[in-house]
Write a structure and sequence with these properties.
The protein is mostly helical and about 300 residues long. Helix content is about 65%, strand content about 5%.
Length: about 300
Amino acid sequence: MARTRFAPDRGLTTRMVLTMVLLAVLYVVLIGAIALAGFGWVFGVIIGLGVLWAQWYFSDKIALSAMRARQVSPAEEPELHAMIDRLCALADMPKPKVAVADTDLPNAFAAGRSPDRAVVCVTRGIQRRLDDRELEAVLSHELSHVAHRDVLVMTVASVVGVLAGMMTRMLLWSGMMRGGRNNNNAAVMVLVVMLVAAVVYAVSFLLTRLLSRYRELAADRAGAILTGQPSVLASALTKISGDMAKIPQKDLRQAEAYNAFFFVPAMTGKVDIASLFASHPPLEKRLEQLNRISIELGQE
């Protein structure tokens, strides 16, 4: 974790290290399956490292482009910049770039490969719905993601699943292009690699979901302690979660792929089997934690 005044979280650090180690093992397994299938490990390594580097280096630009957001100057958004200036001074951390997404979806997110190369983005929807104190509480939550460096870990962690799917499609195409007497053997090898890739994707998906849930609780906790106003963050959470159900389904589906990075997931309040694999903990659990912090701060 970067040296800031955000409360450290050993549990989050341990989970991030464990997740990265397990994902590295999964990647090696996938490359091994590709090599045994006769496609060569060099192919997998080159493709994997290339995608990993691109995701790491351009993560902030990719996130902003996906949300159609743009970086804004202090002259364009003086109040937003002033909030982030105050929080960064309070946390003793570098100020990230500031961006705004022109969408009514009420949300915020942080991206970037390091605290010095980070960006914090808010949507027009969240600016319209929250008052200054609530928005500042949300920004404190997002800045804690940057300070904890879990944004980088989540970005890298998502690459393994992407690679599994991409390599599977490439190998399937390669296997279909092969002909001759060994065509049947090649088809069997491709199926084996596809099975391994499916398992790798499933395990990486579960690992990133588990990490994502914990990191949201860690960010709530660190942000609330830094500002000393957990009840304000709870108010923002409640307000945004309630308004999310009013957003058109089309807009929610378009943003769904980036739920793991949002302050509040882009989904309705409907509870179903998909809730078991949600990127965020239940709202009730987040509010309970903030209530406990409020009591603790009051006692102190």
